[in-house]
UniProtKB/TrEMBL annotation:
Similarity section: Belongs to the glycosyltransferase 2 family.
Protein name: Dolichol-phosphate mannosyltransferase
InterPro entries tied to this protein: DPM1-like (IPR039528), Glyco_trans_2-like (IPR001173), Nucleotide-diphossugar_trans (IPR029044)
SUPFAM superfamilies given in the database record: Nucleotide-diphospho-sugar transferases
BP term (GO), one: glycolipid biosynthetic process
Keywords: Glycosyltransferase, Transferase
UniProt keyword annotation of Isomerase present: no
Pfam families for the chain: Glycos_transf_2 (PF00535)
CDD domains according to UniProt: DPM1_like (cd06442)
Length: 257
């Protein structure tokens, strides 16, 4: 069962080698795709140098300039589907997501009946670490807000540590995903739920980054707040149908805005 971990990067030279080595050190034989948005700090060059160590396991897709987290993942999803991967993971480069939790997300989909598994901070056993109180309140409040507005049965809908079975990504019209920042994670889970897929939350401890800097901004938070309202409003007039992919998806196709 081929498993691919997609890690979007922008200026992650302090973390990228360590995170790749940590994932590659797991016994479950995960492959890694780095989607780098032209990092000026040389992140892409570090990945290239490591490809000789992990031939056929470590891949790099380089894009020109910052294009947003959502478009990086869409690019990675299409690449993964075209290459035949069965389980596709989202993970941050900064160790806020513990690579040792990847096998638990995989098990939830491969053995426990989930179509989507979510590394969750807000189910029993989940936690956050090293967060200032204001960020903890903002994050938890956002999750409560998403649940109240959308009714999605996921406690941590904003989570970015996720495993998708390929059938989920094949069924979603990836070109119709609207958001590129904070709301992207919510829209993907909401769409999967509306299409009737089973989502299982797996408790994790989310640790604040120690190296590099956070990509969070006021614009991303604003997109999240307004985006949730837009997602729910549009869903009232939309019929959700599973996409049947007649042709292989091409990574270079643009994402709708």
């Amino acid at each position: 069962m081929e498993k691919l971990v997609i890690i979007p990067t922008y200026n992650e030279k302090d973390n990228i080698q360590r995170i790749i080595e940590a994932v590659m050190g797991l016994q479950e034989n995960f492959h890694v795709l780095i989607v780098d948005d032209g990092s000026p700090d040389g992140t892409g060059a570090i990945v290239q140098s490591l490809q000789h160590t992990y031939p056929g396991q470590l891949f790099l897709e380089e894009r020109s300039g910052k294009q947003g987290l959502g478009t990086a993942y869409i690019h990675g999803f299409k690449w993964a589907l075209a290459k035949g991967y069965e389980y596709i993971f989202e993970m941050d480069a900064d160790f806020s997501h513990n690579p040792n939790d990847l096998p638990r997300l995989f098990k939830a989909c491969a053995e426990d009946g989930a179509d989507v598994s979510v590394g969750s901070r807000y189910v029993k056993g989940g936690n956050t670490q090293n967060w200032p109180w204001d960020r903890a309140v903002l994050s938890y409040g956002a999750s409560v807000y998403v649940g109240l507005v959308t009714w999605i049965p996921v406690r941590d809908a904003t989570a970015g540590f996720v495993c998708y079975h390929r059938r989920v990504l094949e069924a979603i019209n990836l070109d119709a995903i609207q958001f590129v920042g904070y709301a992207f994670q919510i829209e993907m889970k909401f769409t999967a739920w509306k299409l009737g897929f089973t989502i299982k939350e797996v408790p994790i401890t989310f640790v604040d980054r120690k190296e590099g800097y956070s990509k969070m901004s006021k614009g991303i938070v604003k997109e999240g707040i307004l985006g949730v309202l837009k997602i729910q409003f549009q869903s009232l007039f939309k019929k959700y149908h599973r996409r049947v992919a007649a042709q292989p998806l091409q990574p270079g196709r643009p994402v709708s805005k």
